[in-house]
Amino acid sequence: MILRHLLVAVSLICAAPSVAEDLGQFASEGDVGEAALAGSVELDGSTYRVTGGGANIWGEADAFHYVWTQRSGDLHIAADIAFEGEGGDPHRKAGLMIRQDLSPNAAYADVMVHGDGLVALQYREVPGGPTRQIVSNVSHPGRVRLERQGNFVYFSVAGSDGVLHQAGGSFRIAFQAPYLVGLAVSAHDNAKAETARFSNVELTVPQLAYVPDTGYAAQVEATLETMEVGGVRTRTVVRHFDRKIEAPNWSRDGAALYYNSDGRIWRIPVEGGEPRAVDTGGRNANNNDHGLSPDGSLMAISDQSEPDNLSRIHVVTLDGSKPVRTVVSDPKARSYWHAWSPDGTTLAYVRVGADDGTYDIWGVKAEGGDPWPLVVGPGSDDGPEYSPDGRFLYFNSTRSGAMQLWRANADGSDPVRLTHDPVRRDWFPHLSPDGKWIAYISFGDDVAVTDHPPNREDVQLRLMPADGSEPPTVLTRLFGGQGTINVPSWSPDGKRIAFVSYRLKR
């Protein structure tokens, strides 16, 4: 602990801060990183006028002007933010920042308002690492708030109504106490300086209600997001919901997403907007195992409308032009759809024995008929998905003693293990359209080997080559689990995935 405080003290000295006679809620101010033009701050009543130079707050190192104080624990910081002047770079930034220390390459999280009106939660997870971002679907905000709760950061944005609403999206980043919190401005041009006004600044400790059970009974908010798989890996908020939604699929034309909520299947434009319910012919107890046929005209749904509450598989036309067709109705098992074969003739699904609780993978013709086993024991087998060429079936299984990803031939023969970390719980392999990559969800070892529960902290979305030739990399960390990415969710062009993140209602 003594060493930790010494390191913080050294970083403060290195940044050469000045301590003004009155900075209100803050203690110090100064330039961070290499800024050709020195920044400054003026306090006029309750409004902070902050001027900053510097090339950017981005990448592996930052340059900006910072007004800060030290804090620890949970915290909310909010402000109305407005740039002075009409010019300047469209990527100039003014915002609220939590930062581990004053090193130019320090770990941080902020909510930034850009010169062109874009709002994003941006973060660097580790010193010297890359910067990532979650882009809000609200621009030109009247007010923003950055929120630290436990090891997660969230943000809220006020739209035209002037009221702060959850922007959606979160990231798991563990700041060590003490950390710094304050106001930041970067010109995005090291030869210039930009000024922003921060008014109605609030620095508060949230009063959060204790949630004794974070399982299925917990009340949550949900955010439907897309994420670039390559490059910066930007996450973009499609829509934030004050209720639970689950399991997005991407339409074949890339224009819309399908998800389930309150037993219904819904369609929403990728750019956001109002959701529209899909006509599922009275089957309105749908769970999160649903997906489109290869030609995009049909959807397989897993529905529990019958009195026995067993999940059955049906096929519906997206335009409602034909009656619902029941494909699997097994009185001795719960049946959950997971995959169409690329030629559209076969469905792969998970059969859960109603009496013995066994999890096995079965196949059935899309037109109906007698099902047959594909992958059966040892252990639990789940989450099947075909490779785009139809040669292989990918799935997750406990047959190694841990929940890991496997690949078998399309008929279920010759299974090969793809992931090998015994302390991770790997679920739901989703193949990119070109068949080269797998995106999947990974839990920590605080989760039972056979479980994929909701509302967990140590949840990662991961990416790996489909042939298992390289170890997986972490795409992002979030609060999520069951419902986050259960079903196929790659965009048709293979550049993005869709998923759901969550937040407990407190």
In short:
The protein is an all-beta fold and 506 residues long.
Q: Can you tell me about this structure?
A:
Keywords: Signal. InterPro entries: 6-blade_b-propeller_TolB-like (IPR011042), WD40 (IPR011659). This is Biopolymer transporter TolR. It comes from Croceibacterium salegens. This protein has 506 residues and is an all-beta fold. The chain is 3% helix and 48% strand. It is built from 1 helix and 40 strands. The strands form 8 sheets. A 10-stranded mixed sheet has the order 1-6-16-8-9-10-11-19-18-40, with no helix packed on it. The longest helix has 13 residues, at 2-14.
What can be said about the biggest beta sheet? Answer: 10 strands, mixed
**Which CATH class of the largest domain is shown?**
Mainly Beta
Low-pLDDT stretches: 1-16
| Overall outline | elongated
Protein name: Biopolymer transporter TolR
Family: Belongs to the TolB family.
Pfam families: PD40
Signal peptide: 1-20
Quick tags:
506 residues; mainly beta; Jelly Rolls; Neuraminidase; 2 domains; 10-stranded mixed beta sheet; 8-stranded antiparallel beta sheet; 3% helix; 48% strand
